[in-house]
Amino acid sequence: MQLKLDGITKRVGSETWLYEMSLSPQPGAVTVLLGATQSGKTTLMRVMAGLDAPTSGKVLIDDLDVTGQPVRKRNVAMVYQQFINYPSLTVRQNIASPLKLRGEKNVDEHVRALAEKLHIDMFLNRLPAELSGGQQQRVALARALAKNAPLMLLDEPLVNLDYKLREELREELTQVFRSSDATVIYATTEPGEALLLGGYTAVLDQGRLLQYGLATEVFHFPKSMQVARAFSDPPMNFVKATPATGGIQLPGVGLLPLAWANDAVAGQQAVTVGLRASSLRLQAHEDDQVLLGKVLLAEISGSDTYVHVSSQIGEIVAQAPGVHHFNIGDELTLYFSPAAAFLFNEAGDLVLAPRLTKGA
Questions:
Q1: Cα–Cα distance measured from residue 29 to residue 293, given in angstroms and rounded to the nearest whole number
Q2: Quick one: 219 and 263 in the same domain?
Q3: What kind and span of H or E run contains 15?
Q4: Full-model pTM
Q5: Residue that is last in its domain, among 178, 205, 230
Q6: Nearest CA-CA partner of 318 in 309, 326, 330
Q7: Which is nearest to 307 in space by CA: 292, 291, 325?
Q8: Could you tell me which residues come within 8 angstroms of residue 303 by beta carbon, excluding any fewer than 6 positions away?
Q9: How many Cβ atoms from other residues are within 10 Å of residue 105's Cβ?
Q10: Along the 360 residues of the chain, how does pLDDT read in single tens digits?
C-alpha cells in the first residue's frame, strides 16, 4: 500500500500545527516519525488515519484521494500511548474481535499464533485487568496485528512502560514488523528507537518535516543542525569555529586538523563543529584531539554513563560505555578523533559528515 501526503497543512485557530509538507513513506516498510514532544507527530498520524482532516493538501492511498474519508472507512490499525483493550473481554476475545468482524476462518488458530508471537499465549483466558502494563500493551498490539490492515500507525506505544519492558517489546516489534507486509508508521521521541526499528525515518520539529530517508542515512548525514540535534541522544555538542588553512580553528583548543574540509567550508566566515556524545572518549586513540575539563554532573542510564563537562570549548556531554563514578568538580580529560566531527555552515546546513561513518 502506498500512502502519500501531498502538501499537507494543519491549522487550529491562529496556530499552525503542521506546516506544508509532502511525504511518501516506503510501502511495506517501517517509517519512524522522530521528534520531540509537540513536534507534530501525533497530529500528522491523526491526519494519516482520517481522525482529523488537513487544513489543506491531500491524503492519497494507492493514488486514490481519501482526504475526506473518515477513519471507519479506511483499513487502518492504530495503537496509542495508552493501550486500549475491551475490559470485559478475555485476551482471546480481544484479539479475536477484528478477525470475527472480517469473517475469518480458523479464528482460534490465528489468535494463538499472534499470542505466541507476542508471548501472551499463556494469558488467553485472562481479562486485561489481570495483566501487567506490558502484557496489556502486547494484547493491544496483537489486536492491531489481527486486523491485518495495510497501514499500521503506532503513536509512541511504549512510552508509558518501564525501561526493561520497552527494551523487550522493541525487539519483539522489530521481528513482527519484518514478518509483516504492512506499511508501518511509528512515532517516537527516542533516536535509539528509530535506529533499532530500522527502515526509514522522518524527522519533525515544531510542525515541520526536516528530513526523510533511510534511518542510517539520516543519522550519519543529517542535513542540518536541527536534524542532528533531534537524531542525537543526548543532543549533539555544537561549537562555533573558524575555517583555517589545514583545518578548523577551534576556540580554546587550536587547529582541528581537517585538511579535507577546506573545500567544503570555502567562503565561510564561521562554521559550527558538531560532536556526538558517543564520539567523546575517556581513553585516547592515535591522532586524537584532547579536551580538558571538569565534571559538572554524571548520570547513569542503562549501561552507559553520561558525563556533563565544563571544557575549554564550553559545556559538553560525553557518553562513556559502562558504569563509571565521577565526583562533581573532578578534572577530566576527554579525547575525540577529528574525523568524527560534523561541520555545518553559517546557515546551519551540513557541509561535511564524519569520515568514520562515510558509507556506513
A1: 44
A2: no
A3: strand 15-23
A4: 0.88
A5: 230
A6: 309
A7: 325
A8: 321, 322, 323
A9: 7
A10: 899 999 999 999 999 999 999 999 999 999 999 999 999 999 999 999 999 999 999 999 999 999 988 888 888 888 887 778 899 999 999 999 999 988 888 999 999 998 988 889 999 999 999 998 888 888 988 898 888 889 999 998 887 777 777 777 788 788 888 888 889 999 999 999 999 898 999 999 999 999 999 999 999 999 999 999 999 989 999 999 999 888 899 988 888 888 778 788 888 889 999 999 999 999 999 889 999 999 999 999 878 999 999 999 999 999 999 999 999 999 999 999 999 999 999 999 999 998 754 333
List the domain range (segments joined by +) for residue 66. 3-230
User: Residue 149 CA to chain centroid, in angstroms?
Assistant: 23
Do 7 and 14 form a contact (C-beta atoms < 8 A)? no
C-alpha span between 224 and 220 (Å, rounded): 11
Domain boundary residue among 196, 230, 264? 230
Separation of first and last alpha carbons in the chain: 29
Distance CA 359, CA 44 (A): 31
Q: Please list the residues that pair with 64 across neighbouring strands.
A: 61
Distance from C-alpha of 227 to C-alpha of 202, rounded to nearest angstrom: 10
- Which amino acid, residue 182? A
Residue 346 lies in a domain: yes
318-352-230 Cα angle (round to 5): 50
Residues 126, 86 contacting (CB under 8 angstroms): no
